[in-house]
Design brief:
The strands form two sheets. A five-stranded antiparallel sheet has the order 5-6-4-8-7. Strands 2-1-3-9 form a four-stranded antiparallel sheet. The protein is of the alpha+beta class. The protein is built from nine helices and nine strands. About 5% of the residues have low confidence.
């Protein structure tokens, strides 16, 4: 008999915690839950205290990577009872268990890693692979096209133990942090055909809408995937049917998302999904 998803996720979390791997539940969009009632729905801002490299000033860690714990009383306690019922995945804090995950988001990134980095344990993901090394380091997004580093002050989805022998964190990975980010990959998007009723009284209306969308993405404190999708959906809903929205406008939104660490593939998928949701 198949276990309910919430029980299965909690069981995985408890098994990992017993191995001293700090874990937490994720909801749709790979967004973490807070683990204390005082911060539910991120009412206190939802950001760890970056100045002290620790959690916000709550009674216990409750946000993003800082929520990851090995304490079974927290994992199976009342604060996360609702979270597990709605969880879609289990995440872990790689740096908290002395690991670094090189997140390779597409085939080109995997090919680059095979040419550039020492072999280590690998875990298949939805679009690419996680390469896991023994040793912790600073996390960083977009260190190469489609490549993120997840270690300290970061979390990664648990997708299984993987295959291969885990090797020590090499200098080649450490050197990726501190380099200038790779330039934003040029994108080609399919714009909806014109023909709808134009509600733009002046070009300023459209420009203001794009600028506000860029700002919303840029200022996202967490849940970047979900923020990007919702922003694309709002822009296409308001401006996508009349022909005023151009490839240049879309490229600005893609660039803002990629600056926050999204890959070009994620941007394209979010754009396509938003169009599909609107019947475009």
């Amino acid at each position: 008999m198949t276990q309910p998803t919430d029980i299965r996720h909690l069981q995985i979390a408890l098994e990992l915690a017993a191995l001293t791997v700090p874990v937490l539940p994720l909801r749709a969009g790979k967004v973490p839950f807070a683990n204390c009632p005082a911060c539910r729905e991120n009412v206190c801002g939802g950001r760890p205290n970056m100045k002290t490299s620790g959690p916000c000033r709550c009674s216990r860690p409750c946000h993003a990577w800082a929520a990851a714990t090995t304490d079974p009383a927290i994992l199976a306690g009342a604060a996360w009872a609702t979270a597990w019922r709605h969880a879609t995945a289990v995440a872990y804090h790689p740096g908290g268990t002395g690991l670094t995950v090189v997140d390779l988001d597409h085939a080109d990134a995997i090919a680059w890693a095979r040419e550039t980095l020492p072999a280590t344990r690998t875990v298949p993901t939805t679009r690419g692979e996680h390469w896991i090394y023994r040793g912790a380091m600073q996390s960083a997004n977009a260190v190469h096209d489609g490549v993120d580093i997840k270690s300290t002050m970061s979390y990664a989805r648990w997708l299984g133990p993987g295959t291969g022998t885990m090797t020590a964190l090499p200098d080649a990975v450490r050197a990726l942090v501190g380099k200038k980010p790779s330039p934003v990959r040029p994108v080609t998007v399919s714009m909806p055909a014109g023909g709808g009723v134009c509600r733009h009284r002046t070009p300023v209306y459209l420009e203001r809408g794009i600028a506000m969308a860029e700002q919303r993405i840029t200022e996202a404190a967490g849940g970047v995937h979900a923020t990007v999708y919702r922003t694309f959906l709002a822009v296409l809903s308001a401006h996508g049917r009349c022909g005023c929205l151009t490839d240049a406008h879309a490229a600005r939104l893609f660039a803002a998302a990629q600056t926050k660490g999204e890959s070009a593939r994620h941007c394209s998928d979010a754009w396509s999904n938003a169009r599909a949701a609107l019947g475009m």
